[in-house]
Design goal:
With 220 residues, this protein is of the alpha+beta class. It contains 6 helices and 12 strands. The chain has a domain at 7-38 and 105-213: GAF domain (Beta-Lactamase), CATH 3.30.450.40. β8 (117-125) and β9 form a beta hairpin. It is globular, with a radius of gyration of 17 Å.
């Protein structure tokens, strides 16, 4: 059932399995998210292009809104991925960009679909679980429902797979191209309730830039 905010609650969608969640995990409809602005710290990133060579630099942080932060990251990501169509290369650079630009993260990376499993892809952070069954844990649930999932407290999520004991909240974005599920983008934080609707919207927009950048021989 849709709340007025446009968010689907797991406790309403799957009342038997997820009724024990406090607060509930949520499936987010990115196109209907509110556009409220809250203050956050941004890291300015610079690119120096010389043919195919690129360097990446961080400047001192300055306070900007979260909306400005994600707009800045979109511009940087487009420059970073320009001219490159490889899935793994672009996933690696997006993982690094997010990990070093967004505050309060302890893990950022990808899992890609391999049969009935998600298999670890490029990431930043501590070593992680290599294989996750689709439908299991936060990543597997996001993949099964093909929906963005926000979890304020991962310790209350049924079947949570704890790869890093420091993680307390999580957001997972499905990666879908031409209706084909490729995998998920996963971000973890040591803070409870670290992610909100603005993060969901911003990360979905970044994920779409990534999706548009990659190419398969079967693409039309």
């Amino acid at each position: 059932m849709l709340h007025p905010s446009g968010v689907l609650s797991f406790t309403r969608l799957l009342p038997v399995v997820y009724a024990s969640l406090r607060p509930p995990a949520t499936i987010v409809q990115p196109s209907r998210l509110p556009l409220a602005i809250s203050p956050l710290t941004r890291l300015k990133n610079g690119f120096s292009l010389n043919g195919r060579r690129m360097t990446f630099q961080f400047a001192k942080p300055e306070t900007v809104s979260k909306a400005e932060l994600y707009a800045n990251l979109q511009s940087q990501l487009r420059s970073l991925l320009e001219g490159e169509r490889d899935l793994i290369a672009n996933a690696a650079n997006l993982s690094a960009l997010l990990y070093h630009s967004l505050p309060d993260l302890n893990w950022t990376g990808f899992y890609f679909v391999r049969g009935v499993e998600l298999v670890l892809g490029p990431f930043q952070g501590k070593p992680a679980c290599v294989r996750i069954a689709i439908g299991k844990g936060v990543c597997g649930t996001a993949a099964a429902h093909r929906q963005t999932i926000l979890v304020a407290n991962v310790h209350e999520f049924p079947g949570h797979i704890a790869c890093d004991s420091a993680s307390n909240s999580e957001i997972v974005i499905p990666i879908i191209k031409h209706e084909r599920l490729l995998g998920v983008l996963d971000l973890d934080s040591p803070m409870f309730a670290r992610f909100d609707d603005e993060d969901a919207e911003g990360l979905n927009e970044l994920a779409q830039i990534f999706i548009d950048s990659i190419h398969f021989e079967s693409d039309p």
